[in-house]
Sequence to fold (152 residues):
Amino acid sequence: MTDHKPKVKKRAGKVVHSAVSLHAREKAEEIRGRYDRVIDYQTVLEMLEDRKSVRYPVELRFVSEGIDPGMFARTEPVSENPEDGYTIMLHNYFENRHDDLPMLILYQLVLVNYGDLATANDAEIFGATILGLDRDTYYQQVAALVDDVWSD
Fold:
């Protein structure tokens, strides 16, 4: 008599998320290759206009109200139609900190490209890959920037 163990079933959500994570990494590698130079604020602004990099139009705004404590930004669709674009609202602390903005904007772009399917892990992998950093370094740098905003 053979001992049959039940197969572990993958939930559909896990399969979908794995596909999103894989696609986000591949897209980040493609973007990194397309912008084969230092990824600075000006380069990120160019990416925002490139539909091969960012699926939908994006407007950047700098605000202080509406950014939850411990966060640096929020991203919202302009309407129910994604084609109308998104607004990334970054804490106004970063308005003139152009050296910091690429990593913060890239983190938010997974929400534009993948919506609610994207996770914080996807954002870290996406941003780190485009910037040519390892994920832990990227996360630590983003966390330090968030700490700067809320340490007062």
About this structure: Helices lie at 12-34, 41-49, 101-114, 120-131, 135-150. Residues 64 and 91 are 5 Å apart (CA to CA).
